[in-house]
Recover the amino acids of this structure.
C-alpha cells in the first residue's frame, strides 16, 4: 500500500464526508480563487474565510492535477516543487504529484529567492507550483531556474512568467491515471530546517510515507469522528505526517491560518476539533492569554477536545503542568522526530505516560532507538550520548550528498539524529541538547536545553535561548537570551538570583534581553543568535560568577 491508496479508499467509502476545511481569518473580503469546476461548500452564513471539500472532490482534484502534469510531460521519477502557504489546494496538488509517480518536493514558504533557487537546483525540480505570496521572490530568479520547464501559478492575477494552473486544470479528466507504484518507489524530497546553513535534500520512498501514517494513527488513535486542527506549515513533515492520521482514519481536518490564542480556540470551538497539535510558543500564548483574562474559556465549546500534543522542539515540563491544570480532561503527548525520519513519531511520550512529562518518550510504533558515544558504541542507561533511530521511516539519503549521508547513516540502517539524549532506567528518553549546541566551558559540557527549561519556569520569562559565546579563559560561556512576558518586567539581578538554584557551572554568565528567533517549525535559530551576538560592541551584561 502507498499513501495515495488511502485517498482513493476514502473517496470511495466516504465520498460526501468533509475531508478538508480551510479557515483564513486574515483574508477579510478579498476575492478567493478556487478550482472553478467545483462549488466549494462554505458555512451557512456565507463566511468567505472558510472553504471545505469532500473526500470525493479531494481525490478528483488530485486526479485532475496528475493528468495535467502527465499531459505536459511529467513522468515517473521527476521532481515537482510545491511553494505554497497552507491552503485548500495544497494537499490535492501534493497527491496529484504523487499519482504521476513523480516526487513531491515541498519548499519552505519562508525561503528567500536565493534559497528557492538553491533548493530547486539541488532537488532537480522540473515543475514548480507557486502561490501569490511568492511572485516577487520567484520573479527575481525565474531566468536562473534553468531546470524548471513549467511554473504553475495557484491564485489570482497570474504573473507573465508563469502558467495559470487554476484555469488550465479545468480541462482535465477526474479519472485516476493509475500509474503503478509500490512502497519501494521514491515518493518525496523534503528539506532539512536549515538552522545550520543551507538545507539538505532528504530523499524518502513511499514506504516511509505510509509508515508515518500508520505511526500517527497508532499513537493518537484517530477515528472517523475525530477532527484534527492543523496549524503548522504543510511543507514540513511534522504537519503533514500528523495529518496523515486523519487520512488514515478518513476523518476531517481543519487547515487554520493564524496562531493567535482566540483564533485557535475559536477554530477548535466552531469546528468541534478533537485533536490539536501545537508548538510551544502557541501553547504558551494561550496559557498567558488565559492568565491575563484576555481569554474567557466559557465563551468556547472545548469539551470535545480530547488530545493536545506538541513536537518540533523541547517541551518545558512546567508549561505542560500549567496546561493540565487548566485542561485536566485532555490527553497530552510529546512527539519527537526529524525530516530524516519522516517527521514525528520515531520517539513519543504516549498519552498513558503523562507522569513522565519532560521525557521525549519511548521508541515509536515500528521504531528502534539507542544512545551512542563518539565511537558509535551504545552507552549505559543514565549516560548522555547521541540518539540514533532505526525504522521504515529513515531516509534513503541526502540527495546528491554522499558525504553528508555517510555522516548520519550507518551501514546497518541507523540514523544519527545529532541530538544528545539520556535514557533512564525505565526506558524513557530525555533530550539533553543538539550535539552542535553543547557548550564546553572550562572543560565542562553544558546542555542548553536543561538551562532553558529551568529559566522558563520563571513566571516573567516568555521565551529563552542559551548559547555559547567565545571566552578567552573558559573557551565558551553560557549566555541566555531572554524574552520577557508582555506586561511584566525582569531585571538582570532577578535572573541572577533565580539562577542560584542551579549548580554554579550551569549559571549563565551573560544575559541579553531580546526576542528569541524561531523558524516556522518552532525551533530556536541558534546559529542566527551566535552570529548576532559574537560581534564586538554589543550590549551584554556580565553576571557575577
Amino acid at each position: 500500500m502507498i499513501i495515495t491508496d488511502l485517498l482513493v479508499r476514502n473517496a470511495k467509502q466516504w465520498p460526501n464526508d468533509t475531508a478538508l476545511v480551510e479557515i483564513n481569518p486574515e483574508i477579510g473580503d478579498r476575492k478567493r480563487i478556487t478550482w472553478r469546476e467545483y462549488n466549494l461548500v462554505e458555512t451557512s452564513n456565507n463566511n468567505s474565510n472558510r472553504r471545505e471539500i469532500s473526500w470525493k472532490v479531494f481525490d478528483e482534484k488530485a486526479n485532475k492535477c496528475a493528468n495535467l502534469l502527465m499531459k505536459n510531460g511529467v513522468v515517473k521519477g521527476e521532481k515537482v516543487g510545491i511553494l505554497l502557504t497552507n491552503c485548500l489546494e495544497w494537499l490535492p496538488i501534493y497527491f496529484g504529484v504523487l499519482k504521476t509517480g513523480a516526487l513531491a518536493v515541498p519548499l519552505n514558504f519562508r525561503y528567500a529567492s536565493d534559497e528557492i533557487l538553491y533548493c530547486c537546483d539541488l532537488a532537480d525540480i522540473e515543475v514548480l507550483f507557486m502561490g501569490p505570496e511568492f511572485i516577487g521572490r520567484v520573479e527575481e530568479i525565474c531566468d536562473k531556474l534553468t531546470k524548471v520547464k513549467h511554473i504553475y501559478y495557484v491564485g489570482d492575477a497570474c504573473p507573465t512568467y508563469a502558467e495559470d494552473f487554476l484555469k488550465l486544470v479545468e480541462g482535465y479528466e477526474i479519472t485516476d491515471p493509475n500509474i503503478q507504484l509500490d512502497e519501494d518507489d521514491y515518493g518525496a524530497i523534503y528539506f532539512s530546517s536549515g538552522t545550520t546553513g543551507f538545507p539538505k535534500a532528504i530523499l524518502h520512498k513511499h514506504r516511509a510515507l505510509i509508515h508515518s501514517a500508520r505511526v500517527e494513527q497508532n499513537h493518537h488513535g484517530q477515528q472517523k469522528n475525530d477532527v484534527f486542527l492543523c496549524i503548522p506549515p504543510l511543507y514540513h513533515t511534522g504537519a503533514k505526517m500528523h495529518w496523515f492520521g486523519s487520512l488514515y482514519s478518513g476523518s476531517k481536518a481543519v487547515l487554520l491560518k493564524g496562531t493567535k490564542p482566540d483564533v485557535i480556540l475559536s477554530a477548535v470551538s466552531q469546528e468541534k476539533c478533537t485533536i490539536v497539535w501545537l508548538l510551544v510558543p502557541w501553547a504558551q500564548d494561550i496559557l498567558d492569554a488565559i492568565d491575563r483574562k484576555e481569554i474567557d474559556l466559557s465563551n468556547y465549546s472545548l469539551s470535545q477536545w480530547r488530545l493536545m500534543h506538541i513536537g518540533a522542539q523541547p517541551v518545558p515540563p512546567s508549561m505542560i503542568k500549567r496546561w493540565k491544570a487548566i485542561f485536566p480532561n485532555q490527553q497530552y503527548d510529546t512527539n519527537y522526530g526529524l525530516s530524516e525520519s519522516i517527521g514525528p513519531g520515531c520517539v513519543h511520550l504516549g498519552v498513558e505516560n503523562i507522569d513522565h512529562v519532560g521525557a521525549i518518550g519511548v521508541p515509536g510504533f515500528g521504531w528502534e532507538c539507542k544512545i551512542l558515544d563518539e565511537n558509535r558504541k551504545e552507552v549505559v542507561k543514565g549516560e548522555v550520548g547521541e540518539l540514533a533511530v532505526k525504522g521504515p521511516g529513515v531516509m534513503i539519503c541526502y540527495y546528491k550528498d554522499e558525504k553528508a549521508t555517510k555522516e548520519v547513516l550507518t551501514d546497518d540502517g541507523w540514523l544519527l539524529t545529532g541530538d544528545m539524549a539520556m535514557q533512564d532506567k525505565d526506558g524513557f528518553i530525555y533530550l539533553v541538547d543538539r550535539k552542535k549546541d553543547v557548550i564546553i566551558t572550562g572543560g565542562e559540557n553544558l546542555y542548553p536545553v536543561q538551562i532553558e527549561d529551568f529559566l522558563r519556569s520563571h513566571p516573567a520569562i516568555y521565551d529563552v535561548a542559551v548559547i555559547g559565546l567565545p571566552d578567552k579563559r573558559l573557551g565558551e560561556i553560557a549566555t541566555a537570551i531572554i524574552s520577557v512576558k508582555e506586561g511584566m518586567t525582569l531585571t538582570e539581578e532577578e535572573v541572577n538570583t533565580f539562577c542560584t538554584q542551579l549548580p554554579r557551572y550551569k549559571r549563565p554568565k551573560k544575559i541579553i534581553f531580546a526576542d528569541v528567533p524561531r523558524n516556522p517549525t518552532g525551533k530556536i535559530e541558534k546559529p542566527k543568535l551566535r552570529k548576532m551576538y559574537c560581534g564586538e560592541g554589543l550590549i551584554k551584561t556580565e553576571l557575577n560568577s
Notes: The two ends are 60 Å apart (CA to CA).
